[in-house]
């Protein structure tokens, strides 16, 4: 078996082993398994069958992971993109009033266009056009972005009078939520410190250990009555309500397309929005994760990036056919990379676990967000280390890098971070008389981004 895996994934050439890759795949899956619970809730608000969406999400994620391994042999896992699923449900269906079948059709068309762009090297050219300084900045910005997501998932950071605020334990005690939300926050903070210690001690599997220890401790506290589930507030029992469950039929969402409005301006606007966000979110994720794994060459290019982009595009198309929103490369893949994942075996392991989840959904859905939050915070710290690669003494390079880094967490968008970074990079180079140093593609991207924001 090991010889077969070696021949398929070239493990020794990439400085890894079967055990390391499988641990990395398990870690990646555990940090992104929340999508199996969240996506049916979000898309279910449109009238889609939540059970069918769960099945479609798991199947599409698994298939896309295998495609990533087959086309690129890279350790990136894929699933329904957060943000795009919310745009699908709350903007296209909720605000614009379109049926979910039309939104699903827009995702299908987006995927088909991306396949064409990937085969014609357009997406690869965009990846290579981004300067190396901005590539480092993207990695740092994603580090801050996923740290913010982790702190939000754990409710350490909550909405407040000044936009965001720290969780208040005294308020939780006063309003009676301490034994649900308060305990969850304490467990998340403990998990961050525990995982940090494991990282310092170079313990193999530190992120996965942190997840299971926090979840296990939460179960103990629930049994002791310290943690009290409050489903109405989103704090459910940490004990699985079963282990095995048969997958729900795909019939309610399978190939449910509506092509009646595909030639309308509104449909084009919706499809373009999906295209834009998915394109630059994916590029940002690939850049950030590849930078963390030292996979970029001296010119900032990622070998086999064309295959990775094609897998992403095919995943979106297949996902739309099955009945789920845009499939994209997941930033949580960086958790597996931190554990040493370097080849497609990591992606295959995560993909297999998505297939397994179809039959063990009660077990996987019991893992709480506050248990995986510490993993995101620690991975964010590790991705921040790329900040040393930015030439801070060269202001023409450093200022756009800072803009890119700052926008990602503050605007809550990888795509917008890349956009503002590229716009500022181009303007500063033109202002300094260095316009000949920029490629025509940088000018084209800058113009595209300006038009996009002017349009909005």
Low-confidence stretches: none
Biggest sheet layout: 2 strands, antiparallel
Tell me the strand percentage band: under 5%
Q: Helical amount among residues, as a percent range?
A: 55-70%
Principal-axis shape = globular
Written as H for each helix and E for each strand, in order along the chain, the element string is HHHHEHHHHEEHHHHHEHHHHHHH
Number of helices: 20
Protein structure class: mainly alpha
Subcellular location: Cell membrane
Keywords: Cell membrane, Membrane, Transmembrane, Transmembrane helix, Transport
Organism: Selenomonas sputigena
InterPro entries: Azg-like, Azg-like_bact_archaea, NCS2
Commentary on this structure:
This protein is mainly alpha-helical and 456 residues long. Helix content is 66%, strand content 3%. The protein has 20 helices and four strands. Strands 1-4 form a two-stranded antiparallel sheet. It has a two-stranded antiparallel ribbon with strand order 2-3. Helix 4 runs antiparallel to helix 15. The longest helix is centred in the middle third of the chain and has 28 residues. It is globular, with a radius of gyration of 22 Å. The N and C termini lie far apart (54 Å).
């Amino acid at each position: 078996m090991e010889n077969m895996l070696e021949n398929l994934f070239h493990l020794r050439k990439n400085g890894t082993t079967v055990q390391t890759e499988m641990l990395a795949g398990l870690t990646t899956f555990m940090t992104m398994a929340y999508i199996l619970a969240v996506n049916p809730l979000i898309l279910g608000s449109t009238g889609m069958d939540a059970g069918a969406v769960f099945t479609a999400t798991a199947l599409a994620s698994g298939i896309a992971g295998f495609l990533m391994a087959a086309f690129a042999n890279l350790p990136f896992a894929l699933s329904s993109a957060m943000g795009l699923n919310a745009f699908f449900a709350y903007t296209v269906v909720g605000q614009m009033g379109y049926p979910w079948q039309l939104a699903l059709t827009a995702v299908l068309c987006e995927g088909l266009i991306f396949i064409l762009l990937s085969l014609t090297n357009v997406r690869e050219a965009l990846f290579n056009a981004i300067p190396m300084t901005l590539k480092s900045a993207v990695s740092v910005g994603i580090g801050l972005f996923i740290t913010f997501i982790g702190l939000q998932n754990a409710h350490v950071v909550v909405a407040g009078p000044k936009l965001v605020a720290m969780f208040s334990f005294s308020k939780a005690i006063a309003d009676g939520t301490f034994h649900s939300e308060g305990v969850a926050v304490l467990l998340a903070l403990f998990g961050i410190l525990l995982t940090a210690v494991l990282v310092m001690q170079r313990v193999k599997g530190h992120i996965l250990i942190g997840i299971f220890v926090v979840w296990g401790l939460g179960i103990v506290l629930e049994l002791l009555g310290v943690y009290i589930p409050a489903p109405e507030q989103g704090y459910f029992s940490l004990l699985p309500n079963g282990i095995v469950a048969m997958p729900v039929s795909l019939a309610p969402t399978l190939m449910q397309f509506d092509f009646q409005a595909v030639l309308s301006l509104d449909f084009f606007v919706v499809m373009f929005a999906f295209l834009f966000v998915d394109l630059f979110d994916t590029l940002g994720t690939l850049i950030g994760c590849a930078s963390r794994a030292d996979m970029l060459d001296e010119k900032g290019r990622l070998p086999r990036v064309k295959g990775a982009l094609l897998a992403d595009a095919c995943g979106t198309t297949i996902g739309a056919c099955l009945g789920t929103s845009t499939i994209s490369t997941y930033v949580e893949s960086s958790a597996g990379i931190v554990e040493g994942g370097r080849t497609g075996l990591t992606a295959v392991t995560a993909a297999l676990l998505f297939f397994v989840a179809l039959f063990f959904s009660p077990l996987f859905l019991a893992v709480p967000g506050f248990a995986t939050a510490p993993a995101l915070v620690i991975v964010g710290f590790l991705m921040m280390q790329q900040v040393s690669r930015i030439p801070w003494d060269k202001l023409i390079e450093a200022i756009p890098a800072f803009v890119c880094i700052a926008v990602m967490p503050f605007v809550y968008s990888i795509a917008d971070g890349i956009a503002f970074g590229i716009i500022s990079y181009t303007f500063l180079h033109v202002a300094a008389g260095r316009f000949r140093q920029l490629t025509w593609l940088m000018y084209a991207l800058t113009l595209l981004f300006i038009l996009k924001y002017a349009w909005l």
